[in-house]
Design a protein that fits this description.
heterodimer, A: 171 residues, alpha+beta, 60s Ribosomal Protein L30, Chain: A, four-stranded mixed sheet, 6 helices, 13% strand, B: 442 residues, mainly beta, Rossmann fold, Neuraminidase, nine-stranded mixed sheet, 3 helices, globular
Chain lengths: 171, 442
């Protein structure tokens, strides 16, 4: 029989989606890490430890993975420990973890692989005390590359999981 | 003279009587398995316009028939400039020596008339020049003015079928993902086209990512994956109304890689939960779900055998992507791919005898086919990125997406014979990926 373990309260997930739809790209923005997808005003000052800009830039909102891997590197764990610390001290925020893959792989497999990557981040953040109810994952596969060349310098940037912090209404 | 059979092509009503089996006689025959080196030369003089208004339709229909046949790589058209005699009347006797002199092995003649209501009536005959006899009976199709391409495809399907002994595939459609915009902000829309790239119709707007549409066995519905909610979820579209619904029972999880069972009543798909992807099936009538695999590995890209008893899928349970076959009810799976590299996106042939797949090895991608037990693996293509094969309704041709490398990389659709011959781009504007071939239209 199927067990649908509910990771998130559905109401929370819907509220989160409404105010922070992870597929912001479709509207024409460049998305997390892109140029100008989110206005600077909404993010605050990267020197202000209470701002999303601080989370995104000063801590770093993303971690990278080796080819076809979802294991967190020591560098990734360092960043995620700081992300967890920030989330723990800012309980009003929730986060969507976006998993991504580079273009070297078939479409369905890459969605599954990017789901694994996003989940690796969730598991680490939860191990650091962040409530799982505040976290949700989305698997983009190879659909949203950041870097567009077809060599390792770009692939390495695209094999990523990005923690997108948003105001957590309803959670 | 042969009897002219009349078929009523009631396209609007989608009810259409099937032509009765025609005699496969005479030496004019291409056996596809043996791999044709020299395409069979044919002549297709412009169909005769039997009413004043039918001239343009007659010319257009003749061109599409010739294009269908030459597009297979099995036929070569003799240019009209080489003709010794013309065809001015559909019922005039065939001047066999004149066609033999220019080395035409097949002659296609036809006529088009148009009623005052615009409806077209198209009849044709096929002649075996070297035997000096008709090949099969004459046949007639009737349809609306806007159906001229479909009528032409039906004529070409008949000709292809009589000469090769295989079912045709020209009167079919392909649902795919139309792509535009730069690589880091790709816009994707579901689109529908005739198999040859004509009559493109967009089914969704570009507001969200859509992936991997799949036809129902009756061709009236399409399963696909949409990021409309922000998360990948399976949707089901009714093509007649172009309306979609989410498979509601799946809310709260990520679902993708859906495909219909051969009876159209069940959907098999991947469900991602907590970082793990397994295969499930769902009965469309009841919404009842069943978990088919239960492993910590990735299980995805499922495809039913044509008899519905088995499912081929990809899994990385061995450490990297390989192909497996299991019962449609789940349970133990048998690995069938053992070559070098990684294997994904398996698709069972409509004939049941082969499985097409994407292979990734040494930095290159290939489309290949193998027997359902994994034997006789044959790679048909090689490029920077070839992916996602889909079978023509007769199981003789495969369409797939080929993406070029680099910042300006674009994905295009290609087709190739299962012999590996006749690789050609499908002529459509803009980028395209994830093709899925419909069954032969009724």
């Amino acid at each position: 029989m199927i067990r649908f373990s509910t990771i998130l309260l559905l109401s929370g997930a819907l509220a989160l989606t409404a105010c922070n739809n992870p597929d912001r790209f479709g509207a024409g923005g460049a998305g997390a890490g892109g140029a100008g997808g989110i206005s600077a005003g909404a993010l605050g000052d990267p020197n202000d430890p209470n701002s999303i800009a601080y989370f995104n830039q000063t801590i770093g909102d993303r971690v990278h993975f080796a080819v076809d891997q979802h294991v967190l590197t020591p560098e990734a764990q360092t960043i995620l420990a700081q992300q967890a610390s920030w989330l723990n001290s800012h309980p009003g925020y929730t986060a969507i973890i976006e998993g991504h893959a580079d273009e070297q792989g078939t479409r369905e497999y890459n969605i599954a692989l990017s789901g694994r990557r996003a989940n690796s981040v969730v598991e680490y953040l939860v191990s650091q005390g962040v409530s799982a109810a505040r976290l949700q994952t989305v698997a983009y596969g190879k659909e949203r590359p950041l870097a567009v060349c077809s060599d390792e310098s770009c692939y390495a940037q695209n094999r990523r999981a990005v923690t997108v912090v948003g105001a957590g209404a309803g959670v | 003279m042969n009897i002219l059979r009349t078929l009523c092509l009631a396209l609007a009503a989608t009810a259409l009587s099937t032509p009765v089996a025609l005699a496969q006689s005479g030496p004019l025959r291409i056996v596809i398995e043996e791999g044709v080196i020299e395409p069979l030369p044919f002549a297709a003089p412009n169909f005769v316009a039997e009413t004043a208004s039918a001239g343009e339709a007659a010319a257009n229909i003749t061109r599409v028939i010739a294009s269908d046949l030459t597009g297979t790589g099995l036929f070569r058209e003799i240019p009209a400039s080489a003709f010794i005699s013309g065809v001015s009347s559909f019922d005039a006797p065939v001047a066999y020596p004149d066609w033999k002199a220019i080395n035409a092995q097949a002659l296609i003649t036809g006529a088009v008339s148009q009623g005052s209501d615009g409806r077209l009536n198209v009849k044709f005959r096929l002649f075996d020049i070297f035997s000096g006899a008709p090949l099969g009976d004459g046949l007639q199709f009737a349809g609306g003015q806007g159906d001229w391409r479909r009528i032409a495809h039906k004529v070409a399907d008949q000709i292809y079928s009589r000469i090769t002994g295989e079912t045709g595939y020209f009167d079919s459609r392909v649902v795919y993902v139309s792509e535009s915009g730069p690589k880091d902000n790709r816009q994707k829309r579901l689109a529908l086209m005739d198999y040859d790239g004509a009559n493109i119709q967009y089914l969704t707007d570009a507001s969200t990512i859509v992936l991997a549409p799949r036809f129902s066995p009756s061709g009236d519905r399409v399963l696909y994956t949409s990021f409309e909610t922000g998360f990948p979820r399976i949707k089901l579209m009714d093509l007649a109304s172009v309306s979609s619904r989410a498979l509601a029972e799946l809310n709260g999880n990520m679902t993708f890689a859906p495909r219909f069972s051969p009876d159209g009543g069940t959907v098999v798909f991947s469900l991602e939960q907590g970082g793990n992807t397994d295969l499930y099936s769902m009965q469309l009538s009841s919404g009842q779900m069943r978990q088919l695999t239960n492993a910590p590995s990735i299980e995805t890209a499922p495809s039913f055998s044509p008899d519905g008893s088995r499912i081929v899928f990809e899994s990385d349970r061995s450490g990297n992507q390989q192909l497996y076959v299991m019962s449609a009810n789940g349970g133990e799976a048998t690995r069938i791919s053992f070559g070098e590299g990684r294997y994904g996106t398996p698709v069972w042939s409509p004939r049941g005898d082969m499985i097409a797949f994407t292979k990734q090895n040494a930095g290159r991608f290939h489309i290949g086919v193998m027997r359902t037990d994994g034997s006789e693996e044959r790679l048909l293509t090689a490029s920077f990125l070839d992916e996602g094969p889909t079978w023509a309704p007769n199981g003789r041709v495969i369409m797939f997406a080929r993406e070029s490398s680099g910042a300006a990389g674009v994905s295009q659709l290609y087709s190739v014979d299962i012999t590996g011959r006749n690789l050609r781009a499908v002529p459509i504007e803009g980028g395209a990926s994830d093709p899925a071939w419909s069954p032969l239209l009724p």
